[in-house]
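Sharing a chain and its predicted structure for anyone who wants a worked example. Both blocks are below, sequence first, tokens second.
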Amino acid sequence: MMKGETIKKSTWLRKMLLRSGMQPFGFCLFLLCLLLASCNQTKTSKDSATEPQEDKRAKELLQGIWINEDEGDVVFNVKGDTIYYPTSTNMPVAFIIVNDTLILQGNQDVRYAIRRQSPHIFEFENQNGDVVKLTKSTNDEDLLEFEDVQPHAINQGLLIKRDTVIMAHGERYHCYVQVNPTSYKVFKTSYNSEGVSVENVYYDNIINLAVFNGTRRVFSSDFHKNDFRKHIPEDIIKQCILSDMIFSGADASGIHYDAEICIPDSPSSYVVDVVVAYDGKVTFHVEE
């Protein structure tokens, strides 16, 4: 818009507003609002133009079943916006392609630089910087790898019950533990043979601990994984399950149980000492 045109429009607006009874101050305020709205609209348009756009053509080329060029193993099947893996332990994952980068949108975005892509070839760098070379399958039987594949938990998901009788301060205490499987999903990130991050699904447990002194209930409560959040790093506990609570002894401070918070299928775990005092109070101590 030319400067002269702006002056003409401003003069016209002023005349119209004065005719309607608006004072000069009100006119200035009105004009300022118009200018601010115009600037915001221009800025939004510029921001939208600079945002990276998804490469729809690249996503279209990736549709289908892909196999490892060197070993001939089926790696994944791409359907629409989702990548499916030929194993029930790996969760399907949404993806996009932006600026020659494959982005897997799982618990967190994972990016892979695309080195080469054509209708029948797909090459990208994995987590270690190695180039993974895939070719599109032309064998209809490879589709059988994905039939009836539904993600399921690797851990056994069994109901576990155990009880322990102890003597403390000359009195008899009966302790009960029950590990209850739940439908609460826990996702653990691992890497397949191509060095691509995949998410395995597990189910967490809720554990009930009860302590009785004869017929008197000293303590009874359910324990969840999040009850131990203060004692375990946040990035670790997200991938953990509350695995078990094991009786470890009794002393003057109370009855001790080891709460095991573990990363499934991994040696990594945390053990928290749960102490039930004889008056029913409970405290946590992280074992070194």
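Comments welcome. DSSP finds four helices and 16 strands in the chain.
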